[in-house]
Design a protein that fits this description.
With 663 residues, the protein is α/β, with parallel strands linked by helices. 35% of the residues lie in helices and 15% in strands.
Length: 663
């Protein structure tokens, strides 16, 4: 599985990039920000930071004020401080906030529900987790700016801004000026899509990267050729569209065979297959038992033949990204990053670094990345591709040739970071592994964004988002309307994995610039590591007497003119209804405890809110301090929503702005 020899982890205090730094956190975060704040606390302490004197409760300036949480990072020397303001909604929105309301307002419920017939809560604190990683990125970038003499000291992040940025591909596709994407109207035939169920009751996912294994697998199971071909077109589009309306004969044929027999057919045909594992299964795995870090930050032995480079002096040719008049320099201004990545995880990581000010050089095959031309088109490229890659410098290089590999080495000679997401072993095969590139640039931070980590553990299925969801236990938490586990067709782990890859690279750059390490640096991240971050509260709570942590709660219910999501705990919403919210909204009665037939399912029984319009209900819930928002059902409308319009720019489609602001 590994493309490099074993590495030495940065485990000693004097090697960690935040050694000697103190982190100051609010003693109790504002409502709705607990998940994001917990991620910041966990990741900063893993990187060596410690709580301020006497613990976070004694840090009076960091006590929460209103809807904001102030997080501080201080160092032993002047100029090493950094502060972050974390909010739920963007500045100017005073309404109550929580994960359920955010999933409704930012479009996640609508995208997640495409595969199951209508908007639906995810069942995980996903947006809070993404925002926590984005907040950690901002703190690390601000600390790095201080070391590099860039006058940036404070960052601002909101969960909503991180959500809109992370789901930007869906908004871009829906708003492309040239034939915007249209997703078929639900309901879908939910029993036709994976996960399928074998004759002995095993729920399983399948994956194929080209049509050959797909065709051969289903042909051997007896599926008609026409159904195989039709389903393949929908199957390959599910990553982009979050919908997979397949033909029911696939599920019917799979159900005639025991899972062991299906595995044998998959082995013969080249199909990848994976049974859905439970959270209890996942808890027994080595990386969960030992609570592995979400990234592997490693120091490699210095090659005595390469010598040393002078201390950092601006990243290659001193390129500084163009800034708006009066805007501060961004934290990574002058940093040069080279990438050879495809799809989402790797390109999103460098897009985040680009948004922090880095100059990105993107290596693509001759003729360009094939995904550039995938509809819908915005201007001269795919709308989805533009969200991840617009503004990057592109160099077309055939890395399969000796000349191409020399060109890669020349490109990284003046770079600070090289990132790839090649298959395990390919870097060594291409002679472009960390040791190879260290010969031309000893100070290079070498990064690999993978699916399954470097750790051994036997054969694993293809490393794609939905397969990792199935194997890691994420799918066990995500439920269908029939209350059965199934991976979400939102690319949850690709997106979170891209954020974590960028976070790990920032930590490595900080270690390099702070002098915490004298050797070469490598940072590996993975989709599996992203799943650990997302599930950590649930995995940590199981079997320890307290039960799993509560994820996004509340309910979704139709009103007389739309659909709203009500967050908080079920009890808080019920209390609000029972104490007059209901009667104040044009004569509606209190909670009935009955779920309307047209309402998407949620963890709690939804009261009947059909007697009044959404605006009336939202006003009453907000007055009672209960988070509630109208559910966005049309992603194309999000950039026109007054609450979010400032979070988009328009260049052939709606493009999300970065999730942070610096001052």
């Amino acid at each position: 599985m590994s493309s490099a020899p074993p590495l030495t982890p940065l485990t000693t205090g004097d090697a960690l990039p935040l050694d000697g730094r103190l982190v100051h956190l609010p003693p109790s975060p504002p409502a709705g920000l607990a998940t994001a704040t917990d991620v910041v606390r966990d990741h900063l302490t893993r990187l060596g930071a410690r709580f301020g004197p006497g613990g976070p409760a004694s840090a009076a300036p960091y006590a929460p004020t209103g809807p904001e949480a102030l997080i501080g990072l201080s160092g032993p020397r002047p100029g090493q401080s950094a502060e972050l303001t974390l909010r739920g909604w963007p500045v100017g929105d005073p309404t109550p906030f929580d994960e359920t309301a955010a999933q409704a307002a930012c479009g996640l419920m609508a995208i997640h529900g495409r595969a199951t017939g209508g908007p639906r809560p995810l069942g995980l604190d996903y947006l809070g987790t993404v925002a926590g990683v984005a907040a950690t990125q901002a703190i690390l970038a601000t600390a790095l700016a201080g070391l590099r003499g860039v006058p940036v000291h404070r960052a601002h992040v909101s969960v909503a801004e991180a959500a809109v940025f992370s789901l930007g591909q869906y908004a871009a596709a829906a708003t492309a000026e040239e034939e915007p994407e249209h997703v078929p109207t639900p309901p879908y035939r939910r029993t036709a899509r994976p996960p399928f169920v074998s004759a002995d009751g095993v729920r399983f996912e399948v994956e194929a990267l080209d049509v050959g294994p797909w065709r051969d697998f289903w042909k051997e199971l007896g599926v008609p050729a026409k159904d195989i071909a039709t389903s393949w077109r929908h199957f390959v589009g599910r990553y982009a569209r979050a919908a997979a309306p397949l033909i029911t004969t696939l599920a019917q044929c799979a159900a005639r065979h025991r899972y062991a027999a299906l595995c044998l057919v998959a082995e013969r045909t080249g199909m990848s297959i994976c049974s859905l594992r439970t959270l209890a299964d996942r808890r027994a795995d080595h990386d969960v038992r030992y609570d592995d870090d979400p990234w592997e930050l490693r120091e490699l032995a210095r090659d005595p033949l390469t010598g040393d480079r002078p201390p950092y002096a601006g990243g290659g040719d001193g390129f500084v990204p163009r800034a708006l008049p009066g805007a501060p320099r961004l934290p990574l201004a002058g940093i040069r990053v080279v990438e050879s990545t495809r799809r989402i995880q790797g390109p999103l990581a460098t897009r985040l670094l680009q948004a922090l000010g880095a100059h990105i050089i993107r290596i693509e095959p001759p003729g360009g990345d094939p995904l550039r031309g995938v509809p819908p088109i915005a201007g001269d490229m795919s709308a989805r591709f533009a969200v991840l890659n617009a503004g990057k410098e592109v160099r077309e290089i055939d890395i399969r040739t000796a000349a191409g590999r020399r060109a890669v080495a020349e490109t990284v000679a003046d770079a600070d970071v090289f990132l790839h997401n090649w298959a395990p072993g390919k870097a060594a095969q291409l002679q472009l592994d960390d040791e190879d590139l260290a010969r031309v640039n000893p100070r290079l931070v070498y990064a690999w964004a993978s699916a399954w980590d470097r750790a051994p553990g036997g054969a694993r299925p293809l490393g794609t988002d939905f397969m990792v969801q199935a194997w890691s236990g994420v799918a066990d938490r995500v439920r269908t309307p029939e209350d059965t586990p199934a991976p979400s067709l939102v690319t949850l782990l690709d997106v979170l994995g891209g954020h974590i890859a960028a976070e790990g690279i920032l930590a490595a750059l900080l270690a390099r610039e702070s002098g915490a390490t004298a050797g070469r640096l490598r940072v590996d991240s993975s989709l599996l590591g992203a799943s650990r971050v997302l599930l950590r509260p649930l995995l940590r709570g199981m079997g320890r007497g307290t039960g799993p942590a509560t994820a996004a709660s509340g309910f979704v219910a139709p009103t007389s003119d739309g659909l709203i999501a009500v967050g908080g705990t079920g009890r808080s919403a019920e209390h609000a209804l029972a104490t007059g919210v209901a009667t104040g909204a044009t004569g509606a009665t209190g909670a009935t405890g009955r779920r309307p037939a047209t309402a998407p399912q949620s963890d709690d029984a939804a009261p009947d809110l059909s007697s009044a319009p959404s605006a009336a209900w939202l006003k009453r819930f907000h007055e009672a301090g209960v988070p509630a928002r109208e559910v966005v059902t049309d992603i194309a409308s999000l950039p026109q929503d007054p609450a979010f319009s400032s979070l988009f720019t328009h260049h052939g489609c709606a493009l999300p702005t970065p999730p942070w602001r610096f001052s």
